[in-house]
Amino acid sequence: MSAVIDTHGHGHTDHDGHEHHPSGLMRWVTTTNHKDIGTMYLWFSFTMLLIGGVLALTIRAELFEPGLQIVNPEFFNQLTTMHGLIMVFGAIMPAFVGFANWQIPLMIGAPDMAFARMNNWSFWLLPVAALLLISSFFVPGGAPAAGWTIYAPLSLQMGPGMDLGIFALHIMGASSIMGSINIITTILNMRAPGMTLMKMPMFVWTWLITAYLLIAVMPVLAGAITMTLTDRHFGTSFFNAAGGGDPVMFQHIFWFFGHPEVYIMILPAFGIISQVIPAFARKPLFGYASMVYATSSIAILSFIVWAHHMFTVGLPTAGLLFFMYATMLIAVPTGVKVFNWLATMWQGSMTFETPMLFAVGFIFVFTMGGFTGLMLAIMPVDVQMQDTYYVVAHFHYVLVAGSLFAIFAGTYFWIPKWTGIMYDETLGKWHFWLSLVFFNVTFFPMHFLGLAGMPRRIPDYASQFTEFNQIASVGAFGFGLTQLLFLYIVLKCSVLRKGEKAPARPWEGADTLEWTHLPSPAPYHSFHEQPEVK
Amino acid sequence: MNAPAAASASNRRMLKKLLVVALGMFGFGFAMVPFYNKLCEVAGLRELWQPGEANAAAVNTQVDLTRKVTIEFDSNVRMLPWTFKPMASSVEVHPGELTQMMYEVKNTLNEPVTGQAVPSYGPRQAALYFNKLQCFCFTQQTLAAGEVRQMPVVFVVDPALPKDIGTITLSYTFFRVDGADRKAAKG
Ligand code: HEM
Ligand SMILES: [Cu+2]
């Protein structure tokens, strides 16, 4: 995240000085530079994180007490839906694409992404989609309110806000697919000579697999929402029971996308953690090959577990058992990864700078989310917990403490390379500890609420749930405010440009190409001469 | 790049291949629809609206056709100047079958009278299996002077009725509830 890039500072590797790119706003609109585009992705994602966060805090304010205080139930449903959509499609996914744009060419020694112009386009679709999505708040009937999973029949009955939401999803899907094509092509065709697939940094591997997942499932989501759209306006009956359609079919198609989607949001996080841990343990990643195989098997298995989101729709028993065991099977490669990270740290000479703190915090808290996932995978248990706050606790443990913490870890890890300036270590540590504590204050009580039977997506609740909800709300506001500290830390490096100058290789144990072959900040044009990898 | 021209040609080939995959997966999403329809049909998961069955008259699958139970109807009045009798003294029904029986009451007085019917069953445990869906005994009945009224009771005998119960007696007693009976008794 930086406004890098002093365009004169690229003299180190770039001799010909041929580019006369426009300056000011037009520079960002027309840029095809992977670093510029990565920066824009990251700022876009942070903006969406703040918007989605404001929605979340409104939800938590309403839930501070039983009864209806701040919003009416219809608007509450819009809040939960839009919070989910904005965080998933606006914050987490684009953040990882931002990392991919910045880091993949640097880590494989390529001069840029394979399709630079398409890259520009993939990014600029996103603000358009975000505007469409957010403008749905202002149309009659308001924003989509069927949950981020936009299940039929609700999604068929809603006002024009749902159409805007569907268009926005189509556009974001197109953006993701173009981004993925770019990433796959870059990785497969543009690696530095000598960098075989099995020598690629783990982050590059996880993104390669993620990009394949995206290409496989984003079109399926596009199909599902296209069917929703034609059911709404063109008289088809895919999901419309009145016309002989089947609402449960929407769930099957949606989750065929949806479960791989949750891995799309965590595999790049695994990649970041797999770069950070070895750098601060000063040891190579333990079990590199097994990491690659674990990641691939997670990706493949993720296609055969979707119905664990549908244990209560009335599947035949054989189906229930299959999806239960298949889901539990995924825990095996996930466990392999956790053990490999622990083994990497084992007897390493570790130091705990902010990226490492977030990485270790990730392992600890993400693993708790994995365990609650396993609980939910047990079908007879899930029948009790489906649609309760237990599920909300589960996926925030894996998505906030998983994906988001990895994004923080990666930002602290690479921001010296991006901006040439060290972040403020003291503030970074504060950011970590406040985030960790407030995260748990917010989401840990939700386990108890779910077990006690509090349903998710409700604006009002029985009074016996009050205390835990109040704790969660206090934690949420703490967590939200803490992220303003993160904003300040990043601004300090990138815009204010205050802080120590970063050396080319600020982390002793970091040994990928961007640290060993490039100065900090990474010049605007890098690796026009590809390095030789031995 | 070392060989930019060659690289960009192979990049473009890759782009095309991946686009085809993406388009294929878009089609795959739609292909799931007939696939699931077929699957549900084969597995019988949608019996409720299978073609053909929707037109057939709804059949009550819970009727136990293997046996019959005799229901006897009895009627009494206490301190009430009414006549009260069932339209038939007994019927034979299959457990699970929905049945209706009419009772007739007549107010023999020259003023309105309010009464409440209270049911009882013989044998006693049959009460557990005798489900009344509609009954004049659910509310108080007020009859105008000299009025005659026919009143239904609609019931189902639970198929779980023990096999050794072949006859159930449903007995109603009408009580006067407007207080006039007590006045009459005192005065
Ligand atoms: C050990 C691995 C995991 C297992 C066994 C697992 C299992 C499950 C199960 C069974 C559910 C359905 C709960 C219900 O609706 O009743 C669920 C929901 C969910 N999981 Fe996981 N999960 C795992 C990891 C993850 C990861 C890594 C992510 C994302 C980063 C994730 C994100 C979600 C989300 C977003 C939902 C809720 C979807 C919704 O209904 O809105 N899970 N998980
Ligand atoms: Cu899932």
DSSP helical segment count of chain B: 2
Describe the sheet with the most strands of chain A.
Answer: none
Radius of gyration of chain A: 23 Å
List of distinct ligands in this structure: protoporphyrin IX containing FE, copper (II) ion
Descriptors:
heterodimer; A: 534 residues; mainly alpha; 17 helices; globular; disordered N terminus; B: 187 residues; alpha+beta; five-stranded mixed β-sheet; 2 helices; 36% strand; binds protoporphyrin IX containing FE; binds copper (II) ion
Structure, described:
The complex is a heterodimer of chains A (534) and B (187). With 534 residues, chain A is mostly helical. Chain A has helices at residues 25-30, 34-62, 73-108, 116-135, 154-157, 160-189, 202-233, 247-264, 267-281, 288-301, 317-345, 354-377, 379-385, 389-419, 425-451, 466-494, 513-516. In chain A, helix 7 (202-233) packs parallel to helix 10, helix 9 (267-281) runs parallel beside helix 11 (317-345) and helix 10 (288-301) packs antiparallel against helix 11. Mean pLDDT of chain A is 93; it is low at 1-18. By secondary structure, chain B is α+β, with helices and mostly antiparallel strands. The mean pLDDT of chain B is 84. The A-B interface holds A 111, 114-115, 177, 180-181, 184-185, 188-190, 193, 215-224, 227, 238, 244, 246, 249, 252-253, 256, 314, 316, 530 and B 1-2, 7, 10-11, 14-15, 18-19, 21-30, 32-33, 36-37, 40, 43, 45-46, 49. Residues 149, 262, 265-266, 308-309, 327, 330-331, 334, 370, 373-374, 376-377, 382, 385-386, 391, 394-395, 398-399, 402-403 of chain A line the site of protoporphyrin IX containing FE. Copper (II) ion (CU) binds next to helix 8 of chain A.
